[in-house]
UniProtKB/TrEMBL annotation, chain A:
Name used for this protein in its record: Cell division transport system ATP-binding protein
PROSITE patterns named in the record: ABC_TRANSPORTER_1, ABC_TRANSPORTER_2
Coiled coil: none
Organism expressing this protein natively: Gemmobacter caeni
Pfam families linked: ABC_tran
InterPro entries per the UniProt record, alphabetical: AAA+_ATPase, ABC_transporter-like_ATP-bd, ABC_transporter-like_CS, ABC_transpr_LolD-like, P-loop_NTPase
Keywords: ATP-binding, Cell cycle, Cell division, Nucleotide-binding
All copies of domain ABC transporter, residue ranges: 6-227
GO molecular function, one term: transmembrane transporter activity
Source organism phylogeny: Bacteria, Pseudomonadati, Pseudomonadota, Alphaproteobacteria, Rhodobacterales
Biological processes, Gene Ontology terms: cell division
Cellular component GO terms, alphabetical: plasma membrane
UniProtKB/TrEMBL annotation, chain B:
Designated name of the protein: Cell division transport system permease protein
InterPro entries assigned to the protein according to its UniProt record, in alphabetical order: FtsX
Transmembrane parts of this sequence: 26-46, 228-248, 268-290
Domain of life per record: Bacteria
A Gene Ontology term for the protein's cellular component: membrane
Keywords per UniProt: Cell cycle, Cell division, Membrane, Transmembrane, Transmembrane helix
GO biological process, one term: cell division
Lineage: Bacteria, Pseudomonadati, Pseudomonadota, Alphaproteobacteria, Rhodobacterales
Keyword Cell division in record: yes
Length: 227, 298
């Protein structure tokens, strides 16, 4: 097992009231595939935000690519986010730019070249090629979710964090998305997917060695293998 | 910093579109820069005209005055000596000397020609005095002269100009202070406009941070826009101001202070520099606003 890409050491987080997450210790090995489950409001999104340095732990240490999050400067955080693709639960877009420009935004802000063929392939894969010029407010929930996935992987990141990526998708589209994530995992990428969808987890476990993490009573547990 | 200017000028269409155009802050910035530069052109013209006048008048004040002594031939030597004695003991008078016949002839030559028989004419004798930097009390001196040499008259015709020269110097300073105040006001207005634009685009900035944009990248999108707007607005303001100054009646035809308001020769380059200053002010103000705002976000 190589150096963990993300590691938590006795991490706790509170938004100001009582502790939402307590004493979490975890190492995500490179190339691993994890699901994250737990009741609504348990803190799944909060956990993922700790994983891409949008939040800093209130206690303990979060380490991303061997760097302690609290020691990162603002530019380091920006650099870190280029190595971690995030599928946000509340898909955030620039509403004045067409979908294609939103998908390529990570390339734009890091001033990299945009390959239009790659972009076309990517949009075709998530089934949005015909909507490349549409503005985000005119998209359906599922279309937005696929667009945000495309945006998360366009930088070819080492880690992909997905927060309820299938929340607005039908089963067929969910399976297609899962297949993409499995493919990305086979290419060596580390993947964490927060989801309520037990069918999706079962489907994934049939294809790869995915582990299931569960947040309950503020703690992180490894869920039973017999889901 | 050195690499910033080329980056600022290079047109980056992608990053330009990342921040949506905001109508009213754009308009406000251009208008403020234009109006302030227009005012600054006049303040500059005022300051330079006052400066020219202060210089001219100070030169004219050679710090000299003359005492003219008119007396019967037998008394003139005595009164001249009395005048020189009085002047020697007057505080504020640095030196005094009687002009020789030769010098007097030179003074009169332009009017009466070179062959004037100075000796045989009942000309007044002239005593030239030079005052020191503190100056003397003219009224007191007049009274003492009256007592000691009744034929002596103090002529200090250039003295009245002194307060004017001081006033002209003050006016130049006032013009320069006005330019500084105008610059400060513009910086303030542009800072406010930049803050408004940053607040209106808070969501855009959040998304940009989430996908890995550096602060400098986000700031540049705003700084570039505000700097170019200020430059454009200010260029228009400077042009209008210069036209305004140019169509004032010329100094040569009318003379006097108000008509002397204008630029001469290289002086015309100064108002042309104002747009660059305005752009620099906008650059600094927006950059400061952007970075202080961005620090508040994760
Ligand atoms: N910015 C915030 N300030 C204060 N409280 C917050 C904030 N964000 C989330 N919370 C609270 O923290 C708790 C956990 O939120 P979180 O979004 O992490 O849950 P979740 O497990 O992702 O839920 P869901 O499955 O519904 O997405 C919730 O009770 C929520 O109200
Ligand atoms: Mg959530």
């Amino acid at each position: 097992m190589g150096h963990p890409v993300i590691s938590f050491e006795n991490v706790a987080y509170s938004y100001g009231g009582g502790e939402l997450l307590s004493d979490m210790t975890l190492r995500l090995a490179p190339g691993s595939f994890h699901f994250l489950t737990g009741p609504s409001g348990a803190g799944k999104s909060t956990f993922l935000k700790l994983c891409y340095a949008e939040l800093s732990p209130t206690a303990g240490h979060v380490t991303l690519f061997d760097r302690e999050v609290r020691s990162l400067g603002r530019d380091d955080v920006a650099q870190m986010r280029r190595r971690i693709g995030v599928v946000h639960q509340d898909c955030q877009f620039l509403d004045h730019l067409p979908l294609a420009a939103n998908v390529t935004l990570p390339l734009t802000v890091s001033q990299r070249e945009i390959d239009n063929r790659d972009l076309g392939d990517l949009l075709a894969w998530v089934g949005l090629k015909h909507l490349a010029d549409a503005l985000p407010p005119s998209l359906s929930g599922g279309e937005r979710q696929r667009a945000v996935l495309a945006r998360a992987i366009i930088m070819d990141p080492e880690v992909i964090l997905a927060d309820e990526p299938t929340g607005n998708l039908d089963w067929e589209m969910s399976l297609r998305l899962l297949t993409l994530l499995v493919e990305l995992n086979r290419m060596g990428k580390t993947i964490v997917v927060a989801t309520h969808d037990m069918n999706l987890i079962r489907q994934a476990k049939a294809q790869i060695a995915a582990r299931v993490l569960r947040i309950s009573n503020r703690r992180l547990q490894l869920a039973g293998a017999d889901l | 910093m050195r690499a910033l200017l080329p980056q600022l000028l290079r047109r980056d269409r992608q990053s330009d579109r990342v921040v949506p155009r905001s109508g009213h802050t754009a308009w406000l910035t251009s208008f403020t820069a234009g109006a302030m530069t227009f005012l600054a052109v006049f303040a500059l013209a005022l300051s330079m005209a006052a400066g020219r006048m202060a210089d001219r008048w100070s030169d004219a004040l050679a710090r000299t005055a003359t005492v003219r002594i008119s007396a019967p031939a037998d008394q003139i030597e005595m009164q001249t000596r009395a005048v020189l004695d009085v002047l020697a003991t007057t505080p504020g008078v640095e030196s005094a000397r009687a002009l020789s016949d030769e010098e007097q002839r030179k003074l009169l030559e332009p009017w009466f020609g070179p062959d004037l028989p100075v000796d045989s004419l009942p000309l007044p004798r002239l005593v030239e005095l030079t005052e020191d930097s503190t100056g003397y009390d003219a009224d007191g001196l007049r009274q003492r002269l009256l007592a000691e040499a009744p034929g002596a008259v103090l002529d200090d015709h250039t003295r009245w100009r002194r307060p004017l020269a001081v006033a002209a110097g003050r006016l130049r300073l006032l013009g320069l202070v006005s330019i500084l105040l105008i610059g400060g006001t513009m910086a303030g207005m542009i800072t406010l406009a930049a803050h408004a634009a940053l607040a209106a685009n808070a969501q855009v900035i959040r998304v940009l941070r989430l996908v890995g944009a550096r602060d400098s990248y986000i700031a540049r999108a705003f700084v570039r826009r505000f700097t170019l707007r200020a430059l454009a607005g200010s260029a228009v303001g400077a042009l209008l101001g210069m036209i305004g100054v140019a169509i004032l009646p010329s100094a040569d035809t009318a003379g006097g202070f108000l008509t002397g308001l204008g630029f001469t020769g290289w002086g015309w380059l100064l108002p042309a520099v104002l747009p660059l200053l305005a752009a620099a002010v906008a650059f600094a103000a927006t950059r400061f606003a952007a970075f202080s705002r961005l620090k508040e976000l994760t």
